[in-house]
Amino acid sequence: MKYVLGFLIALLAGFAAVPSAAQAAPSCRYAARTSYFGQIINVHPSFFTLRTNQSIGRVHVFARGARVNYGGLPLRPGVYAGVYGCRAGNGLVAEQITLAQSPQAFPGMWYGTSNDRQVIGRIDAVRGNRILIESNNGHGAVWVITRQYGFGVGQVIVANGYFSPNDRAFVASNVAPYRPY
What would the CATH number be for the domain defined by 115-177? Predict the structure, then answer.
């Protein structure tokens, strides 16, 4: 009897360590976005594990509801993936997933985003698709290029993206009002 009880406890502990299909994926509603790139090493019904070459190492990617650019490839171990979404605990809630045979075959639309950065600052000016912020990241004044509108002078924002070498501006994949934790 004690062996059966011990087995059941060990079995339940094993299930608790891995996200299950019954668990709802966290929301990205107020979270800052980021991107991870790497090779898929495991696929489960509601998530997959991505081995990245970034400091995070391995990350569980919750794929439910994400837009997937399959490029003719199945979601399976060995496929290279670029994932855009938000951090949630030890995982990433995916909003967009792009698959490729290898890093070299990755679509050009992701060019430059492998060194994602984040800038946070108060808006000093808005001119069309450009927002001038006073960055607290040590960059001083930064022009943020975005397709998102509705931001005003004095508002504090967080932008995820990369610095464009040609324009010396920050190309944002996402801009949102900044809400500290």
Answer: 2.40.50.140
